[in-house]
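Reading group handout, session on sequence-to-structure problems. Before we discuss, look at one worked example. The prompt was deliberately terse, the way you'd type it at a terminal:

> structure STN and carboxypeptidase regulatory-like domain-containing protein

The input record follows.
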Amino acid sequence: MRDFRNQNEEKRRADRTLQIRLFVLLFFALFSLPSFAQNYLSTLISIDAKEERLDSLLAQISRIGGFYFSYSSDALPKDSLVSMSVRQEPVEKILNMLLKGDYEYKETPNYVILRLAPNRLQLVSEDNHEYGKIHTITGHVIDDVTGERIAHASVYEKRLLLSTLTDKNGYFSLKVKNPVTSLSITVSKEYYRDTTVVLLAPVLVGKSDQNYGYHAGSDLNAAERTGVGRFLVSSKQKLQSLNLGGFFANSPVQTSLTPGLSTHGSLSGQVVPKVSINMIGGYTFGVEGVELGGAFNINKSDVRVVQAAGIFNLVGGGMRGVQLAGISNTVMDSVIGLQASGLYNHNLKNVKGVLMSGGINLVHGNVDGVQIAGLANITHGEVQGSQFGAFNYAKKISGLQVGLVNIADTSSGVSIGLLNFIKGGYHRLSVSNNEFTHVNVEYQSGVAGFYTVLKVGMSVVPNQKMFLLGGGFGRDFLFNDHFSLGSQLTSQNAYLGNWNELSNLYRAKLVANFRLSKNLEIYAGPALNVFVDDRSEEVARYKNYFPFQNYDGKRFNAKTNAWIGWDIGVTLF
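And the output record:
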């Protein structure tokens, strides 16, 4: 029996030892994981600065602290000179020293948001009563120093996505249906620090599944300042945007008739739904799912994954996914995915994906993908991809342009069109003579690596008239400033007295180019010709004598002949 008890005691000791070891392992495993809730404001850093610009010093602090600052460009005296020396002090304390305590700080993943808020608010609750399942909270908002009542301040409950604005006397009334155990009422006003008051509610229900946070961004009201934004977004919603800044709350569903008539009222501009259904049009902070608008959708920030509207979409942030509109899409940040509209796509930053429009694609940044437009593609940055339109422009093209007119400031790609205007490229006029026609005039546009040719030719001998019109492509191989080889493929229609029976001349030539001066070049070389004579009968006074009748060549059939000829000419410009 004693041996049995000893065995049990040894087993208990072994179990306790194992439990302690597991606890120690778990402790170190947890604390060795990377922190996803980094408190940037409490990070200790050291700074030495003498007469340094404020924005440069903030950039230095952010590099040391491992985060980014986000602030409105006009909210800080960025060019003011600062001198300071601190050792291992929290970021928040250093910011208070730099900004004199006039700013409010909010932490988001990878960012610290700086918000100008030199003043303070106070919420004074006047009444808190219940009628049935409706809980009404009333009160007023005042300036904490002057006691002045504050008009147009935002009063809201974050979790329940309920909000209102104070009237001209600073008074508010907030109705809550089935309130939770406690309500956190927050007051926000531009240039004031946020103030939150916790009020007890008499009814106990389950917690809301909403979550909220703050979005880092220097300008979240850009969409409101556009023409359609000023017209369609209500004054109450604009005031909410000014007061609440980057505050947002996630919601499963948002529906609206118009921007002012929605399930979240005037707070809709701070909501990020997964599904947004707008009968006529809607206004949200952003979308993380699907948004459909009968006429339009307006968003302050980013949109993911699908957005479609009968008339237009206006996105103040970026778009990632598929965006469709009957008339126009406007995105004020970058686009990744597919954007298609009936008339107009306008993107203020970069695009990676496909743009399709029946009218115009306009991009202010770079494009890595494909632009297809019925009229014009205009890109103020670099195109690494393709442009297909009647008119194409890119600051730099390193891909392909196909259109009637192509323009680029610089090019390392290919432009195919009737006219190609490349800065520093070819804009040349050549006059030549060959065995087939007496006079040929051609215009070359593009770059040495690839250029297009527009070409006319004629024979002027009496009773042997002929006119040719067509074009093709060319490439020059440059050896030095004075010598190059030029290669061309051209196709021309030949008029021999009957417009209904045009013949065709196909010509491939290789010539040696000798540059005599900046604007003068001579060339000569052989050419391979294929002529297809589609006439049913000869026409008087038009050409019926051809080089292949005397030159050695190849007769494919009664209508098609080939031979080796020559080309000699002068190039201007």
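Points for discussion. First: Residues 1-33 form one domain. Second: The chain is about 10% helix and 55% strand.
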